[in-house]
Design a protein that fits this description.
Elements (H helix, E strand, L loop, with lengths): L9 E7 L4 E7 L6 E3 L5 E7 L7 H4 L7 H19 L1
Parallel strand pairs: 1-4
Antiparallel strand pairs: 1-2, 3-4
Length: about 90
Amino acid sequence: MKPRIHPVSRPVVFRDRAADVAFLTHSTADSAQRVEWEDGNTYPVIDVEISSASHPFYTGTSRVLDTAGRVERFERRYGTAASARN
C-alpha cells in the first residue's frame, strides 16, 4: 500500500437506535461522540437508523405497504394509454 493515501481504520461502535443494539467493528468513519464498551475502552460511536438487527430482510418481519393503491393509481394514469398503443 502507498503511504499517506489511505484513511485510518479504527475500532468504531455502531449503535442501531431502532433495535437498541450496538456492535463494535472497524471503520474509517469517526465521530466526536464516545461510548465505553464492554472491554473498558472508549470508542467513537455512530448512530444508524437501520442495521441487520432491525432490517426486515434479516429479521423476517415485513412492513405493510399500500401497494394496491399504488397499482390502481398507476393503471389509472398509464393503463389506458399503454393498452391503446397495442
